[in-house]
Amino acid sequence: MPDSDLTFQNLEELKPRAEKILSRQAFGYYASGSESESTLRDNEASFKRYRLVPRLMVDVSKVDTTVTLLGRKIACPVLVAPMAMQRLAHSDGELATSRAAAAEGIPMVQSTMGTVELAEVRRAGKAGPMMMFQLYVFKERGFVKQLVQHAEKSGYNAIVVTVDAPFLGKREADEREGFKLPDHLRLENLTGLAEAARMERKVHSKNKGSGIALHFADHIDPSLTWDFIPWLHSITRLPIFLKGVLCPEDAHMGVEAGADGIIVSNHGGRQLDYAPASLDALPGIAAAVGKRVPVLVDGGVRRGTDIIKALAMGADVVLIGRPILWGLTLGGESGVRKVLETIKKELRLSMALMGCPSIEHLGRGMVIAPWDQYPNARL
Ligand SMILES: Cc1cc2nc3c(=O)[nH]c(=O)nc-3n(C[C@H](O)[C@H](O)[C@H](O)COP(=O)(O)O)c2cc1C
Ligand SMILES: CCCCCCC(=O)C(=O)O
Fold first, then answer.
1. What is the pLDDT of residues 312-345, one digit of tens each?
2. Percent of the chain with pLDDT over 70
3. Which atom of ligand 1 is least distant from the CA of 322?
4. Which residue has the least CA distance to atom 2 on ligand 1?
5. 3-class SS at 116?
6. 37: helix, coil or strand?
7. What is the pTM of this model?
8. Which single residue of 8, 33, 97, 198 could bond 269 by disulfide (Cβ 3.0 to 4.6 Å)?
9. Which cofactor does this sequence's record say it needs (predicted)?
10. CATH T-level fold of 3-368
């Protein structure tokens, strides 16, 4: 199918269509969560538990979806989540995602584990409002310093440190399929280093089980503590966001340690199974952060109404993960653009139906949990 012929109504339609195109290994890697996939399922289910209460008689002839993040205006409160190995989906991989996000006015977060080199990805997205670099912290701190400073020089605007992955979660699909990076692809940010050849062998290894889990156990630092944040500030001027926070106390400690933003996330249900759905964890974390820094959330965002719920419950911005990969699989750059256009349109219409001409109008009173009473309900 030519890339530009892609049509769909909503983001929920895309996964089964992408499954028909991807290899079993690639689909398994993208789609799966850890262990019983309880958290994976709950991420989407949590959004469906909450109801929205619209306000009436408000002029919504104009609806403004824009927000400001790190002093930059973005088209709507959405970021593309960091996701590894996008060339498994489409030969243009991260370049296509970067171009599409830029064209839609939406920032992308580029993964350390990209299959296109980070400076090239940044160049492809130069027309966009900004880009962030997601950092995995390797045991070799010299390499971490090199990577972060290279990202800063290449024009990234923030560092997102992933703190929920001292080891990779137990992803049974990857173990069953013996997931390996195909020989024609590389983790391009890791080449050119003394360590690279050895790391690469693990990712491509013919051993049984998941090649990426082996790589992680060898090279990612499981001894990370809060003092890493001041160290990171000492080697870069970029703002630092922490990704993977689920506990209010950790959010508070992160801000005290110097974090400039908190991302509420369970890594798309791929790390600790039975961790809470991100949306359920959000209100407590927003309260603990108390507007000191922006609070972002990801996991299961699939509809414009999901964005409204997350914002009304305390988030400043949401991140979208897997639907981007499905769009990339189905249509490359135009597939990702279509995903972002679709969610933007849904957000705009839902804001109008909620009586919210701008993002500031969204508030906690507009969302009802099953355990809340409807306003002034008489039972
Ligand atoms: C295939 C895949 C690869 C991912 N790679 C990374 C990564 O390299 N770094 C990271 O911090 N998170 C990674 N994530 C987690 C996402 O950034 C995000 O937290 C999650 O996918 C959001 O949930 P959603 O997919 O339900 O929207 C990955 C997720 C997927 C599905
Ligand atoms: C050796 C590559 C590991 C990539 C892990 C990326 C990730 O965070 C994921 O959830 O998958």
1. 999 999 999 999 999 999 999 999 999 999 999 9
2. 93
3. 25
4. 83
5. coil
6. coil
7. 0.96
8. 33
9. FMN
10. TIM Barrel (3.20.20)
